[in-house]
Amino acid sequence: MIAHSRPFIGDEEEVATMNVVRSGYLSEGDEIGSLEEEMCSALGVAGGVAVSSGTASLHLALLVLGIREDAEVVLPSYVCPALLYAVRYVGAKPVLADVGEGCYNLTPETVHPVLTSRTEAIIVPHMFGLPADLDGLFSFGIPIIEDCAHAVGARYKGRAVGGIGMLSICSFYATKMIGAAGGGFIAAQGAGLIDRARELSWYNGKKGAELRFNYRLSNLQAALARCQLARLDSYVHRRKAIARQYNAALRHLDLQLPGVADELMDHVFYRYMVQVKGAGDEFRRRMLKEGVRCGYGVLEPLHSSLGLPARDFPNSHQAAEHAVSLPIYPALGEDDIRHVATVVQNLVSGDELSALRS
């Protein structure tokens, strides 16, 4: 069975994590500070804090911006629910916007209609590794939190994503661009914001009754993340190479392939998303029957979770019904790439296509 996603763990990761185990400094230690410095360098930011998850970093980002009850925070409907949860953690009101047609990202055109005088932040994921139109979104003058959970290593007009918005967050979940079994990172250009995030992320050794959180990343995870970060350029190169092979094999088919909205937006292909003509669930089932496990991209758009009408989110609804994530990750072998492409070719042709549409 060809997995939908799988981390690559090499000898360096084994050595680094064993060194931490033998040191006895599993929770706190030098690996954390070193990871923070290296992530700041990679993103081009003034400061950052390694934390326990991407969701924790989103929560902290909203807190340090001072987002409280009655504030509105804009986020896309076609996204994982972690963004919704983080907004609810601070008691703010989540306001959903549709994504752009075919790009899965927020756009100025989809965000503008939902802005109000109470909008205090926009969470902008770079979905599946393609940078969003940041310049257009900055034009609203509202603080932007870049969600780089899918896009560490991507560049927007020559700048690393994660180093452009007021704040940015990353995830180190096992199958992300940097996989450390879990963890996250919050970064900012302003030292004051990061000092505040650091203050709130950990309670140990601090006096006073201010609400703080147990959001520290462990030294063991930091060692693993550092090894993965060192491999990031090679990971991006490999993902792009696989995407080129898929493009060449599938471009003649009746599929919507991943698009690049602008030649200056660098897609790192955290996911290789296609939209099929028929039901995505049926396509995934048939792929699985042929030994290929495919993903959803997003299991359920937020407008569906919240009971909002699909007509208000046509592109998110379209993606939820028809988008399929094909396997793409650095450890994917050449034979597996060819097999995935062949199975897709066979399904999206002749009788198989008719069956999928029926």
Keywords:
358 residues; alpha/beta; two-stranded antiparallel ribbon; 40% helix
Characterise the protein shown here.
- This protein has a seven-stranded mixed sheet with strand order 1-9-8-5-4-2-3, with helices on both faces. A two-stranded antiparallel ribbon has the order 6-7. Strands 10-11 form a two-stranded antiparallel ribbon.
- It has 358 residues and is an alpha/beta fold.
- It is built from 14 helices and eleven strands.
- Strand 4, helix 6 and strand 5 form a beta-alpha-beta unit.
- Helix 1 runs antiparallel to helix 8 and helix 9 packs parallel to helix 13.
- The C terminus is likely disordered.
- It is globular.
- Helices cover 40% and strands 13% of the residues.
Summarize the SSE layout with pairings.
Blueprint: H1 11-23, H2 30-43, E1 47-51, H3 54-64, E2 72-76, H4 82-89, E3 93-97, H5 108-111, E4 119-125, H6 134-138, E5 144-147, E6 155-156, E7 159-160, E8 167-171, E9 184-188, H7 191-201, H8 219-230, H9 232-250, E10 272-275, H10 280-289, H11 302-305, H12 314-322, E11 323-326, H13 334-347, H14 350-357
Parallel strand pairs: 2-3, 2-4, 4-5, 5-8
Antiparallel strand pairs: 1-9, 6-7, 8-9, 10-11
Helix pairs in contact: 1-8, 2-8, 3-4, 3-7, 9-13
